[in-house]
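Notes from the 1:1 (GR / supervisor)

We went over the backlog. Supervisor wanted to see one worked example end to end before approving the batch request, so GR pasted a single chain during the call. The sequence is below; no edits were made to it. Supervisor asked that the structure be written out right there so they could see what the output format looks like.
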Amino acid sequence: MSAEALLAALMPVAASLPLAPLQHTATFILGCILRRHADMFARLRELGNATFLIDVTNSPVLFVLTPGAVTPSIEILRREDNPPAASATISGPLPALLLLLQGRVDGDALFFSRALSIKGDMAAVLCLRNALDGAEIDLIDDVAARFGPAAGLARRAIQFHGRMGMRAGRALSLLQAAHATQASGRSRASHG
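Structure output shown during the call:
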């Protein structure tokens, strides 16, 4: 299971979770990437405290990334929250953003195909893109590596939880559809 499939499966569940566990998870993942790709973050130091608002268009949450700070950070906000001003905003669906993060797709191709939208400081975005290009990030491997000798077991556990997340996401979608159908039926009955 790919990181794209895993995170895409978990996004519907994210709407019903408090932000604290999501924030903890995002910070942990950023730390895993930082450990394995310190050279990439060293190249991003020239950005200083520039922030990127990552607008995952098919998600209930937004990410505020500050990759060039002395201590890189990520903050999760609900879509309805008032996000802080950012140096640049990168918008797109989760699979496209994850493919871009992991260098599995050309950012220019995503931009020109309109899968991604970019606003703000283009020099900062270009610096971020150039740093990501050669980093060879693999989210599942980067997180699993944090577990040292148990990395193989961690990788399998992540993939297992991804499959469970996909099932939970499908079940949640079915429940939401059933609830909407039931509410629609009640509405028609009260008006009819």
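Supervisor's comment: The two ends are 48 Å apart (CA to CA).
Batch request approved.
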